[in-house]
Amino acid sequence: MNAVDTPSTAADTRPALKFITCGSVDDGKSTLIGRLLVDSKAVLQDHLAGVQRQGETDLALLTDGLSAEREQGITIDVAYRYFNTETRKFIIGDAPGHEQYTRNMVTAASAADAALVLVDATKLDWKDAGLKLLPQTRRHSLLLQLLRVPSVVFTVNKLDAVQDSALAYRNIAGALAAFATDAGIAVTATVPVSALKGWNVVDVAADAGWCGYSGPTLLEILEQLPVTAADTALPFAFPVQWVEKFSSSSDTTQGRRVFWGRVATGTVQPGQPIKVMPSGQTATVAQVLNHVRNPQAVGAGHSAGIVLDREVDVSRGDWLLAANEQGQSLEASHEIRATLAWLDDETLVAGRVYWALHGHRWVKAKVKRIVHKLDIHTLAEEDATQLEPNAIGHIELALQEPLATLPFARSRALGSLVLVDTASHRTSGALLVS
User: Fold this and answer.
1) Hey, what long-range contacts does 75-83 have (CB within 8 A, 24 or more apart)?
2) Are 184 and 61 in contact (CB under 8 A)?
3) Which of 303, 296, 298 is nearest to 268 (CA)?
4) Which of 52, 102, 317, 373 measures 20 to 30 Å from 346, CA to CA?
5) 413 to each of 52, 111, 255, 325, 408, how far by Cα in Å?
6) How many DSSP H helices and E strands does the chain contain?
7) Contact present, 244 and 258 (Cβ < 8 Å)
8) pLDDT higher than 60, residue 22
9) Which range has the top average pLDDT, 67-76, 193-202, 364-373, 423-432?
């Protein structure tokens, strides 16, 4: 076998899958990640020795890194862990289940390729075929849909702790399927597991056909999930993060500054006409540098340094957008209609003014109108004049300066904004352009 074809080499070159675990409190998210790490041999022996409790390994402590998390036995912040198998690399985000930390879950999900929604079988009336799911299970699932997470895997946990695991799995899987259908959520798979015992996580359950399930293990599913494709087919858009000035340059055919950042959409190459937002100035790309300063075209998702053909006033927070020969580019607007996940502890009311962050650009934004609120229990859209903490709804924003956006369904980078309280500087809401 040629060296380039070895599994270990393939794992090094294949894009890493970024996935999160979410769901209600104490559904076993941290324990599941601990099981993935231990059974895939991604944890060193000295690390394992440090999470022993009364002679047994406490898997949850492998991800709960904050002292407050260890003291309270809950997840507060998103903990990231890394591991790989023979076929690919993984980046895991362990999202908290408490409602008050929903903002942390949204942050992790906004960049995820996939999500595991854990459901604790012991918390549900599993004997009832028409059982009701927990509110946080529904809320997290809806947030995943709003954030356009491509792959969603329902993971029914703790089935080893119920009397009739097959009946419990059948009823819970049925309730999840009905909810997903009503909500329009595309589900990749529904898997019964025991994170504590390791059944169907990395290895198949000891009892063949446990819970009446004969499909792949959770890890086998994760190994086959696709990574989110970069938005290379869209027009070029580039948020400027840093401006570098040459120490000296006698070349008058191009500007003397390099604009660094990560390409949000499209591809940039020399000779390409661009428009600067918000100034509206136009120029032509003279040179493109990759992340190691080699000249080459750079596509979406990768860092680039851009030199223009002339000196143009560009600062951190400005956007460079593709322009045609007439200088036209993506349309900018002073008004935005968007879906909002409200993350602040204070209730949102119309008329409030916030900072809106788009890429690296800050603009003042006023909440013109709250269109409606989504009832997470019935999935109905209700008229509303305010949004409570952790509510989801639709709003209209008036911006002090225009922004060039696209619907979030077309572009995560151009269709997402963050609202920040102007006084406390708290992250108040996650906006998804409609």
Assistant:
1) 75/29, 75/30, 75/101, 76/101, 76/104, 77/101, 77/104, 78/20, 78/104, 78/105, 78/107, 78/108, 79/30, 81/33, 81/37, 81/42, 82/16, 82/42, 83/36, 83/37, 83/40, 83/42
2) no
3) 298
4) 317
5) 42, 10, 27, 25, 8
6) 8, 26
7) yes
8) yes
9) 364-373
